[in-house]
Amino acid sequence: MGVSPAAPAQLPVGDLDLAGGRRTPGAGVWIWHFMASKPLGALSAAIILAVILTAIFASLIAPYSYTEKAGLALKGPSASHIMGTDKFGRDQFSRIIYGSRSTVKVGLGAAALATIVAVAVGVTSGFIGGLFDSIVQRIVEALMSLPWMVVVLAVMTFIGSGTSTVILVLGLLAAPTMSRVIHGATLSVREMAYIEAGRAISASPARLIVRHVLPNILAPIIVMGTLAVGNAILAEAALSFLGFGITPPTPSWGQELSGSGRQFMQVAPWLAIFPGLAISITVFSFNMLGDALRDVLDPRLRNA
Amino acid sequence: MQQYLLRRIVLLLPTLFLALTAAFVLIRMIPGDAVTVLMDNSQYSKKDYTDLRQQLGIDGSIPVQYGTFMESIVRGDFGKSIWTGQPVMRELITSRLPITLELTFFATLIGMVIGVPAGVIAATKQDSPIDYAVRVVSIGALATPGFWIATLVLVLPSYWWHWAPPFGYKSFVQEPWTHIQQIMIPALIMSLALAAALMRMTRSMMLEVLRQDFIRTARAKGLQSRVVVVRHCLRNALLPVVSITGVQVAILLGGTVIYETIFSLPGVGSYLYEGVSRRDYPVVQGVTIMLTVGVILVNFVVDVSYRLLDPRVRY
Asked: Which of A43, A104, B140, B141 stands 20 to 30 A from A23 (CA)?
């Protein structure tokens, strides 16, 4: 098979037992250690927390509502509108604040869905092995070779858009690549002596998976899940940018940049700059956090 | 080699079959269908309902639809566009595909030309300011949406200097200089994410290979540092880089939807965009099939070139 030598993602029997059990350091100690060794990762985590809180408390933070005509149209940044106003005179800062809701919803939703599907497929396929594994892995390979952007648009055409569709489709399309890494991790854990010991005392496969496999592959799951959020946010922004993602009037960062507003951006470039910055900073934070977590939790995954 | 090629080609068929089946399932799996959405949004009368379903090949049960879908692929006939009445396949091959191939080719080329050397330099000067710069730039480029950069490229020069890239697509024969600008600007922007991914991959692979015994041996022989890096190290580090390029080309092909739309290039991507906007199902389905097949063929070429590049790889 055309399996690349780089692919076999390596395997985590993390030294850090996140699942509890042995002398695991308390959460506070762990967070302190993480902040000290990975300052950029900690900063990213803080930014992510801020974005999530913004999404939850958008109505308290935003000075105006996202539909209200709050001032003159197409005015640059000023004291009352720190990011300027758009073509309808709506406050861009407020729209970006409210826009974080779609970003957080789609980013976390799609990544959660992808993680659940990827873990279910990757772990069962890897744990059962044999012919079943070969068949599932061929299907995963086929899914990985789909050009996702194209498939998303095709699905949107056939069933219409909307937040839940976006989450569903982006989540399902991100799952195959993720399941590949989890599959690799499962394969190595499966060969461990403690699994054999579990079998020897006739533990059921379900118990072996839940009690012994999952806790030991938690590190790559967390890392892949974090990175998946960033990718889902980028994908949602691209879709909304094309006009097929989150439907107006609900604001979303990608949609703020969409093509229909471009003639206004040429006279009001702040309309193009701030939403893009919001996307970049958020995605950057998720990627940095993912990288930092990988270094801390599972150094062997670095090349994945 | 011949035997290997033959085996690889035979293996290509199930992959194609599975990927296309997956595309079919994803498109039809979720409730609601083409015609219902179309009816909601347009002037079609109820009378057209069944005709339309039949024309789109979604009138039968799911297995029948699947048969129609596969048959159209085997025959290479994706039907006619609802909007223009033109055969989708002919439009794709004669006017759309060349532009997209040109764009993707140059984006890949630029991405490799930037990404690989930057990765090599970063690895040979590990933890130097250059290394940090390369790492920050690459992780930043991966987080920055390409469509935002493209928007800024269109918006900012026109705000500051009243300059904009030439609009209205011209072929190379008509106006060579206009054509070059029209292709190269989007190709450069498209290449950024690829360059970033290649930088990271090249850097980490180089770091791994640089620590191997044969590199120490080569240095001990008194070979020039450049010869060691390029001939001994890079050749070995490049293999995984080649494989990641295959994956990235799939992303680039999907990304053409965005860049061709922004820069109004009439390629496959903007054809898909038009198809989606007008709910022109035969077009959407045709482009999906064509790009899926395209991506699988790219991966096939990557796998085969692997074998050519590295005599150690045996299957």
From this structure: A43
Token output for B208: 């791994």
Q: How far apart are CA A114 and CA A104, in angstroms?
A: 15
Please write the tens of the pLDDT for every residue from B256-267: 888 998 888 899
What percent of chain A lies above the pLDDT cut of 70?
Answer: 84
Helices (H), B125-267: 129-143, 146-160, 176-210, 213-220, 225-227, 235-262
The ipTM (two decimal places) reads: 0.78
CA distance A277 to A270: 10
Could you report the per-residue pLDDT of A200-212, keeping only the tens digit for each? 999 898 899 988 8
CA pair distance A59, A98, nearest whole angstrom: 8
CB-nearest partner of B276 from A6, A153, A262 = A153
Residues B275 and B286: their CA atoms lie apart, in Å, by 10
Between residues 20 and 79 of chain B, which touch chain A (CB distance below 8 Å)? 21-23, 26-28, 30-34, 37
Is residue A290 within 8 A of residue A227, CB to CB? The reply is yes
Assigned domain for A159 exists: yes
Tell me the residue range of the domain where A185 lies: 93-303
- Is residue A61 included in any domain, yes or no? no
Q: With contact defined as beta carbons under 8 Å apart, do A179 and A139 qualify?
A: no
Domains defined for chain B, CATH in brackets: 24-77 (no CATH), 97-309 (1.10.3720.10)
Smallest Cβ distance to A257: which of B19, B148, B159?
Answer: B148
B285 and chain A in contact, CB less than 8 A: yes
CATH number at residue A184: 1.10.3720.10
CA angle B2, A142, A189 (to 5 degrees): 100
The alpha-helical segments, DSSP class H, found in chain A are 27-37, 39-56, 58-61, 92-128, 130-144, 148-159, 163-190, 193-200, 205-207, 214-216, 218-242, 253-256, 262-265, 270-297
Domain count, chain A: 1
Distance CA B258, CA B269 (A): 7
Kindly state whether B286 is in contact with chain A, defined as any CB-CB distance less than 8 angstroms. Answer: no
Does A145 sit within 8 Å of B147, measured CB to CB? Answer: no
CA distance A197 to A186: 16
